[in-house]
Design a protein that fits this description.
five-stranded parallel sheet, 16 strands, 19 helices, 4 domains, elongated, Helicase, Ruva Protein, domain 3, 46% helix, Rossmann fold, alpha/beta
Length: 474
């Protein structure tokens, strides 16, 4: 407790309140007095107090009203109740209303002194906690985004500036640059942080399912809809909705999204009742939406609606100075997860990491580091621990490990008696398997290399039996 605490005494007994005030001043406290609820509110409005000591009966007024008023408007001030009419129920009611403690008259000096010390100490702890919370909020969401690059530092400033804006935000950048992390950082640093953060991968669902996913549906809307289901817009009410891969939305879905982003009103699939929501929307894409608008695949009016604030994330090859920082972070994580003692990459290997183009960006770098930790037999990682696409070492250097996608031959016996789809499964599986090995099982890079959507690659891998993690180390 500080040497001097500021205290507001509230009691309609003038003789008692002046006597107590004099005693507290002799104890080095700063004391103001009030006899009515109005006087107490006026004093609270003039200055801040560490502690409010009040009776529950203030002539015709109720001390519980002062407790509630203080808690709501001056949460940093603790309230200590002093009354001559206390019962167990009164004490419980006072604490529920927001009082820190309750003492009964006649007061004992030592008891009052201890109660004041505890109440003021509690106020100090509350203020310290609030300060720490504010400091954490300022960092929240960005602590896992490591960068010294000036482009990223500017983006961090933008995140702070737009965190509380109601306008839609469009995050663009290549696969693996951290669009989802930036979206979460914006939410975490906004006034909506206590609300939900709901993420939807638009490219992972067909149009009909995406509509139900976003807007919900009513029972009987389609086969299998046996009960009402809230959509993501409704679930994100009061929080943030993150729509990833927005460029994959069909023209019909784009029309529906435009209306929702304009009015924040929609009807569930199969329903007639209009829902209204207070949802902040953040969208992301790895495609050039302006080019898509010019080509007629993305609506111009929707583009202008979502492109109010555009955050462009640089690729990893544009911020090679961050690679050592990121590698160190991923090494620590992988070493702890795998229970391995790893010193780090040697100079030659680090130079090679910084000279690589990183088509899969930060996500690919993380996978490369984890692979090196898993497969290395030494504490020091070298070029030999890097995958072939980075090290440039061919099959003869790596014990016959395939590093190039070779032509796949189809024999007549593989075709006879089969449908075209069945006949193509073998070659398709081999092509995808070779590409996955070439890109160290980085699915984003593999999808880009094969010029297919990432979701399409996932579905093909599952259909062709390539989603078994044991294949990565075969």
């Amino acid at each position: 407790m500080p040497a001097s605490a500021s205290i507001l005494l509230v009691d309609d007994d003038r003789h008692l309140v002046e006597s107590m005030a004099q005693w507290l001043r002799e104890m080095s406290h700063e004391v103001e007095t009030a006899a009515t609820l109005g006087e107490a509110k006026a004093e609270l409005g003039r200055r801040s107090f560490d502690l409010v000591i009040t009776d529950l009966r203030l002539e015709t007024e109720d001390g519980f009203e002062l407790i509630a008023y203080t808690r709501q408007n001056f949460p940093d001030s603790s309230v200590l109740v002093v009354t001559g009419y206390a019962t167990p129920d009164t004490a419980v009611q006072a604490v529920r209303a927001g009082a820190f403690d309750l003492l009964t008259k006649p007061l004992i000096d030592e008891e009052l002194t201890l109660a004041i010390q505890r109440a003021v100490a509690q106020s100090e702890i509350s203020r310290e906690n609030e300060l720490l919370r504010q400091q954490l909020d300022r960092r929240s969401g960005l602590e896992n985004i490591l960068s010294h690059d000036y482009r990223m530092l500017k983006i961090f400033d933008v995140v702070d500036s737009v965190a509380d804006a109601r306008a839609s935000i469009l995050i663009t950048g290549e696969n693996g640059t951290g669009k989802s992390m930036i979206a979460r950082a914006i939410h975490a640093r906004s006034a909506r942080r206590s609300g939900p953060f709901v993420e939807v991968a638009c490219g992972a669902l067909p149009d009909t399912l995406l509509e139900s996913e976003l807007f919900g549906h009513v029972s009987g809307a389609f086969t299998g809809a046996t009960h009402d289901r809230a959509g993501k817009f409704k679930l994100a009410d009061g929080g943030t909705l993150f729509l990833d891969e927005i460029a994959t939305a069909t023209p019909a879905m784009q029309v529906k999204l435009l209306r929702v982003l304009q009015e924040f009103k929609f009807e569930p699939l199969g329903g007639t009742v209009t829902d209204s929501v207070d949802t902040r929307v953040i969208l992301a894409t790895n495609e050039n939406l302006a080019k898509s608008v010019a080509e007629g695949t993305f609506r111009q009016d929707l583009f202008y609606r979502v492109n109010v604030i555009n955050i462009v994330l640089p690729s990893l090859r544009e911020r090679i100075g961050d690679i050592p920082l990121l590698v160190d972070h991923f090494l620590r994580e992988a070493s702890e997860t795998c229970d391995r003692k790893i010193v780090g990459f040697d100079v030659a290997a680090m130079s090679m990491l910084q000279g690589y183009s990183w088509p899969g960006n930060v996500r690919q770098l993380e996978n490369v580091v984890e692979r090196a930790v898993l497969l290395s037999r030494d504490e020091q990682l070298t070029i030999e621990d890097l995958p072939p696409e980075i090290s440039g070492r061919g099959p003869s250097d790596l014990g016959g490990l395939e590093t190039n996608v070779t032509p796949v031959q189809t024999r007549s016996e593989d075709v006879n008696g089969k449908t075209l789809r069945e006949a193509l499964q073998g070659p398709e599986r081999e092509i995808i398997l070779q590409a996955l090995r070439l890109y160290n099982w980085n699915r984003a890079s593999t999808a880009d290399a094969l010029d297919i959507n990432r979701t399409t690659l996932y579905k093909k891998m599952k259909r062709l039996g390539l989603d078994d993690p044991r294949l990565q180390y075969a």
